[in-house]
């Protein structure tokens, strides 16, 4: 009887474990594992959201069009029609170079904002962290598809911002440009998804 | 010579020559380039009787009539029309006291173009159309010239003067700011209007097209809504659209709403036997700062019903008691298929959970029963051994 008892307990235990297994694996919607391109597009969208929040909360919206930043990635040559004919490797390479350039600009903005004790600093720090994460993800994807890496360009940054107003205006300009860059980059990533799947 | 001059033939020749000279002079005056003067409505207008400085009294006519608007004629023969209105417009002629035409001038009245009120529509990422209205009626044809700063370069914005709009294609969309300059000019002068626009904020797709609402046979509470992308929007991976569907039974002020990226949706909670109003609109899925399209045309559809039992008159007389309340809405899940799957999953989960509970209870009962049995057996063994011990001789 003792043997029977032990075996019944272990049977019960196994049954419970099995039920637990069924219980945890039974999901109403089967989850598709996100691809690397999904991760890239999601992370870009996340950055875009952060940028919008920063613009809403901390930037100074003016009708004046300041031109403090001369070395931001050029967007005037990117049209909607181009998005349907993007090539995988050159686009990833270009996006990586663009992101590195933005990273430099935002690190500069962070330094300047800290100097002026700007309240946006914590969010800026978070944004730079997310940007670095996106760059790492993108770099990994580039290695996977053997996309070349460009030599990083040296950004030309404004020399000195004496007033809080200048910081606000620079912040607005940079965030506005970056938000639009993220919009384009997101579209580029989702357009490139089928091409990236074909390569892997 | 004097005799010659005084001869009747000579006098006749001289008279004829002088008459012809005189008439030719008058002819020259009337043949000269018509004098057209453009003046602003409401201003004081002064018309001169040609270049005559002879200070002769003159008579002015308007469109060959001696009736003129409120006016004054100066001793120099100038016609002064104070605060002119549209009735003062026309052909003015001045005559000498003998009725000879001295000069004709056409007066045109209107306004110089003012600053235009410009608004732009961006139906997709490649095209912008900017339309304008004039601050007041010009009364004269106005021409327009428009230029658009697309990225770093200035490009013409192609003008349709009759419809007062201009178009730019192949936009450099991903720029924070674009500039449009529209110059309006007519014979009174010109004006330049400059606006700065944010295309990404003005982006507003056209409403979804081919919107259909169909009943689903055997499902009296379901309606299948389907639609397609607006034809002006590219059907490409890079340009996903978010769709917003709203529906309500006719007469209700409460909309039910769902958001989806699909091109169809099944309403699962329609009110059986009632007409439903359904509308769909679209927005760029990526850019949350862009605008929603206008709603598609309101569609009225009734879910499937067994027609033998239906009473159409009752339907049309049904009214919801919420008419005075403000319009509100309730949001629903994104995807009908997901909703179905969600319900099925829930049922499966509940069944599994009850099986687990049942198994556990049965197992516990079994264990307890086994323990009890073991205990009984042990007691029995003890008793047996005690009986055995008692029966043993000491």
TrEMBL record, chain A:
The keyword NAD is assigned to this record: no
Pfam family, one: IL11
Keywords (A to Z) from UniProt: Signal
InterPro entries cross-referenced by the UniProt entry: 4_helix_cytokine-like_core, IL-11, IL-11_fish, IL-11A_fish
Coiled coil: none
Signal peptide (from-to): 1-26
Gene Ontology molecular function: cytokine activity; growth factor activity
One GO CC annotation: cytoplasm
GO biological process: positive regulation of cell population proliferation; positive regulation of MAPK cascade
UniProt name for this protein: Interleukin 11a
Organism: Salarias fasciatus
Gene: il11a
TrEMBL record, chain B:
Molecular-function annotations in GO: cytokine receptor activity
Domain named Ig-like: residues: 42-94
A GO cellular component entry from the record: membrane
SMART domains named among the record's database cross-references: FN3
UniProt keyword annotations, A-Z: Glycoprotein, Immunoglobulin domain, Membrane, Repeat, Signal, Transmembrane, Transmembrane helix
Fibronectin type-III domain residues: 207-304
Signal sequence region: 1-26
PROSITE patterns documented for this protein: FN3, HEMATOPO_REC_L_F3, IG_LIKE
Annotated transmembrane regions: 344-370
Family: Belongs to the type I cytokine receptor family. Type 3 subfamily.
Entry protein name: Ciliary neurotrophic factor receptor subunit alpha-like
């Amino acid at each position: 009887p003792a043997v029977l008892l032990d075996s019944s307990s272990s049977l019960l235990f196994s049954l419970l474990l099995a039920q637990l297994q069924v219980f945890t694996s039974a999901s109403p919607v089967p989850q598709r594992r996100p691809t690397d391109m999904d991760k890239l597009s999601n992370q870009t969208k996340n950055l875009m959201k952060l940028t919008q929040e920063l613009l809403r909360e901390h930037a100074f919206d003016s009708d004046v069009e300041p031109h403090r930043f001369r070395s931001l990635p050029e967007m005037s040559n990117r049209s909607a029609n181009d998005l349907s004919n993007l090539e995988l490797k050159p686009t990833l390479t270009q996006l990586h170079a663009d992101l590195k350039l933005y990273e430099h600009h935002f690190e500069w903005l962070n330094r300047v904002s800290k100097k002026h004790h700007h309240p946006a600093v914590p969010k800026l720090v978070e944004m730079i962290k997310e940007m670095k994460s996106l760059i790492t993800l993108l770099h990994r994807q580039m290695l996977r598809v053997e996309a070349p890496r460009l030599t990083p360009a040296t950004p030309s940054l404004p020399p000195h911002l004496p007033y809080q107003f200048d910081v606000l205006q620079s912040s607005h300009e940079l965030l506005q440009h970056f938000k639009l860059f993220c919009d384009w980059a997101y579209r580029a990533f989702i357009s490139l998804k089928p091409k990236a799947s074909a390569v892997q | 010579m004097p005799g010659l001059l005084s001869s009747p033939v000579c006098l006749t020749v001289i008279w004829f020559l002088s008459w012809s000279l005189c008439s030719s002079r008058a002819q020259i005056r009337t043949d000269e380039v018509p004098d057209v003067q453009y003046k602003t409505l409401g201003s004081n207008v002064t018309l001169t009787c040609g270049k005559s400085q002879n200070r002769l009294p003159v008579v002015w006519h308007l469109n060959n009539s001696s009736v003129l608007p409120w006016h004054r004629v100066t001793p120099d023969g100038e016609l002064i029309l104070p605060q002119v209105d549209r009735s003062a417009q026309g052909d003015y002629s001045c005559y000498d006291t003998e009725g000879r035409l001295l000069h004709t001038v056409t007066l045109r009245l209107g306004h110089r173009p003012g600053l235009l009120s410009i608004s732009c529509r961006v139906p997709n990422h490649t095209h912008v159309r900017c339309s304008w209205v004039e601050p007041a009626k010009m009364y004269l044809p106005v021409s327009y010239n428009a230029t658009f700063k697309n990225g770093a370069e200035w490009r013409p914005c192609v003008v349709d003067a009759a419809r007062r709009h201009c178009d730019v294609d192949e936009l450099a969309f991903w720029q924070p700011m674009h500039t449009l300059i529209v110059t309006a000019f007519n014979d009174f002068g010109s004006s330049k209007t400059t606006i700065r626009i944010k295309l990404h904020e003005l982006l507003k797709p056209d409403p979804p097209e081919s919107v259909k609402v169909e009943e689903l046979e055997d499902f009296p509470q379901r309606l299948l809504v389907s639609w397609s992308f607006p034809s002006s929007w590219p059907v490409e991976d890079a340009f996903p659209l978010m769709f917003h569907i709203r529906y309500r039974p006719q007469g209700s002020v409460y909309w039910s709403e769902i958001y989806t990226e699909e091109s169809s949706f099944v309403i699962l909670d329609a009110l059986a036997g009632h007409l439903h109003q359904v509308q769909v609109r679209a927005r760029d899925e990526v850019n949350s700062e862009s605008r929603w399209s206008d709603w598609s045309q309101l569609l009225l559809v009734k879910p499937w019903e067994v027609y033998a039992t239906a009473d159409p008159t009752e339907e049309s007389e049904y009214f919801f008691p919420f008419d005075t309340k403000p319009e509100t809405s309730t949001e629903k899940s994104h995807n009908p298929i997901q909703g179905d799957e969600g319900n099925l999953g829930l049922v499966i989960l509940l069944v599994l959970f009850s099986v687990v509970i049942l198994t556990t209870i049965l197992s516990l009962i079994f264990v307890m029963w086994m323990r009890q049995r073991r205990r009984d057996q042990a007691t029995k063994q003890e008793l047996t051994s005690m009986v055995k011990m008692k029966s043993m001789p000491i």
